[in-house]
Amino acid sequence: MTAPLTSPQPPAAGGTMIAIEAVSKWYGEVRVLSGCSTAVTRGEVVVVCGPSGSGKSTLLKCVNALEPFQEGQITVDGTRVRDKATNLPRLRARVGMVFQHFELFPHLSVLDNLTLAPRKVLGRSKAEATQRGLDLLARVGLSAHAHKHPGQLSGGQQQRVAIARALAMDPVVMLFDEPTSALDPEMVGEVLDVMVELARDGMTMMVVTHEMGFARKVADRVVFMDRGEIVEDVAKDAFFDRPRSERAQQFLSRIL
Ligand code: ADP
Ligand code: MG
């Protein structure tokens, strides 16, 4: 029996962790999100899919306030993202994000990548941050690489470091934006394995991915987007077995 990857979530299973209500966003004149509404319950894993340009990345960036939006409301663990009173750095510290390109600090060791933000943002002591960092590296199978620089690791290893780095902040939710799309095929599995384990430990997750095997294995729900709209938002089995919209049927027929 191994220790879980994350601290246990608060016992109140159920309860909304992310509420997205009628969110619309424009880049200049171009509307890229149109009245998007969905909610993610504590401990739930929601896979977001849809064609390129449909607004998936933009929606995730709105959730952790990397992008502003003009209409609607997003609430993360009770905090309103678009409220002037909200402390955005504090909000972002509670929302872990993993991107397609790992964006590790190239000049820092793997371990220092994991301890920097907990020390600077959360005020953890060096000893405490180091211990937590080493625990997380062990959990993603990278203990032997703590003192290397990111450039010395494979893409799959770097992405596992990026996941561990996000977890080092003890986030209440994790957002993944196509975390395996930039990887060589033989490295996809090791990253998905870490994500599967995280899901099984009860982490609340929104995952943009085209890995439908992952979706089938761990998703509770699938949100399908097209042209800035949430077209389907249904239980996983309903999405794969009987997608209602023609757009989702076409999308699935192309990628499955
Ligand atoms: P997806 O992640 O589903 O591929 P995105 O959220 O990246 O889609 O993009 C949605 C739409 O917003 C696309 O039409 C894209 O061209 C546009 N877009 C994304 N980022 C910007 C930006 N910084 N400025 C202008 N348009 C953007
Ligand atoms: Mg994208």
Question: Care to give the gist of this entry?
Answer:
With 256 residues, this protein is α/β, with parallel strands linked by helices.
Question: What this model shows, in words?
Answer:
The model is unreliable at 8-13 (pLDDT under 50). This protein has helices spanning 56-63, 88-94, 110-120, 126-139, 155-167, 185-200, 212-218, 236-241, 246-255, and strands at 16-27, 30-41, 45-49, 71-76, 79-80, 95-98, 173-177, 204-208, 221-226, 229-235. It is 36% helix and 25% strand. By secondary structure, it is an alpha/beta fold. The chain has nine helices and ten strands. Bound molecules: adenosine-5'-diphosphate and magnesium ion. Magnesium ion is lined by residues 56-57, 177. Magnesium ion binds next to helix 1.
Most strands sheet:
6 strands, mixed
Relative strand content: 25-35%
How large is the radius of gyration?
Answer: 18 Å
The helix fraction, in percent, is 25-40%
Number of helices: 9
* Residue runs with pLDDT of under 50 for 5 or more positions: 8-13
Helix- and strand-based class?
Answer: alpha/beta
Mean pLDDT: 93
Name the strands of the widest sheet in spatial order: 6-7-8-3-9-10
Q: What best-fitting shape do the alpha-carbon axes yield?
A: globular
Helix and strand sequence = EEEHEEHEHHHEHEHEEHH
Tell me the total number of β-strands: 10
Query: What is the terminal separation in angstroms?
Result: 35 Å
Which molecules are bound in this entry? adenosine-5'-diphosphate, magnesium ion
